[in-house]
């Protein structure tokens, strides 16, 4: 019977780009405009990012809307309750790269539950590798928008996010303190500089370890 549930005009719209490209701003605008048109809306963000608190989604400019901060998307229906879920027309998802169950959620919400799902997230991490499941939902999408920022070094179009520290784990929550948007040329130059810094730091650590071991 589940399989016979018919589609009620569900849609999936995807907004990607580097940090500071205006993804959250675009998501908030689209959700707000749906709400202004009388549709019931809800926004979900990952609970991994608690920088601005967990009850609202906030842009780098400080614009905000209330949201649900969740560890995964599958908990959404249970969290808000079945009746409330059924009444929702539009679901906005921010920081989509942090949700492992993004594909299944979008599929079910759009195909079977008739929801309009608007997804914003990073397509690539600081190494320009695919980030989470964001690229996996492109085949599900009605529309895909790739936004760009301004390169912090030269002001040209920024496609990439440069991590300014030598930290290597993929997931590292942060803002302008840790990341900056850059153009292709400054991404390459920046990576070379950061790799060099990492090599120096690692060799210093090895030297320190040898000194400690050699100490009487
Ligand atoms: N280097 C930059 N390039 C573009 N926007 C920047 C930059 N640094 C800060 N910003 C601000 O960030 C805003 C975008 O914020 P936001 O929508 O939260 O972006 P995202 O969700 O893509 O990280 C821009 O409108 C701008 O005011
Ligand atoms: C590039 C990159 C980013 N992150 C984190 C940093 C921020 O907390 C979010 C992105 O936020 P935004 O709304 O797009 O500005 O993701 C990360 O964990 N790893 C990375 O490589």
From TrEMBL:
Substrate binds at residue 179. Keywords: ATP-binding, DNA synthesis, Kinase, Metal-binding, Nucleotide-binding, Transferase, Zinc. It comes from the Eukaryota. It catalyses: thymidine + ATP = dTMP + ADP + H(+). It comes from Stephania yunnanensis. One of its GO terms (molecular function) is metal ion binding. Its EC number is 2.7.1.21. InterPro entries: P-loop_NTPase, Thymidine_kinase, Thymidine_kinase_CS. Belongs to the thymidine kinase family. GO terms for biological process: DNA biosynthetic process; response to stress; thymidine metabolic process. This is Thymidine kinase. The active site is at residue 95. SUPFAM superfamilies: Glucocorticoid receptor-like (DNA-binding domain), P-loop containing nucleoside triphosphate hydrolases.
């Amino acid at each position: 019977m589940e399989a016979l549930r018919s589609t009620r005009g569900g849609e999936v719209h995807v907004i990607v780009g580097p940090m500071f490209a205006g993804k959250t701003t675009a998501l908030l605008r689209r959700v707000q405009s749906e709400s202004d048109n009388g549709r019931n809306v809800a926004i979900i963000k990952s609970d991994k990012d608690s920088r601005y608190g967990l009850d609202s989604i906030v842009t780098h400019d400080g614009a905000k809307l209330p949201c649900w901060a969740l560890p995964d998307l599958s908990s959404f229906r249970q969290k808000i309750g079945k009746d409330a879920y059924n009444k929702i027309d539009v679901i906005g998802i921010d920081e989509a790269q942090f949700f492992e169950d993004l594909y299944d959620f979008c599929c079910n919400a759009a195909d079977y539950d008739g929801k309009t799902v608007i997804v914003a997230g990073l397509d690539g991490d600081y190494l320009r590798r695919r980030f989470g499941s964001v690229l996996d939902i492109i085949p599900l999408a009605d529309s895909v928008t790739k936004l760009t920022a301004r390169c912090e070094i030269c002001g040209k179009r920024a496609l990439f996010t440069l991590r300014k520290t030598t930290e290597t784990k993929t997931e590292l929550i942060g803002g302008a303190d840790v990341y900056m948007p850059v153009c292709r040329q400054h991404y390459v130059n920046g990576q070379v500089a950061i790799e060099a810094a990492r090599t120096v730091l690692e060799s210093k650590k090895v030297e320190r370890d040898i000194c400690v071991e050699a100490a009487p």
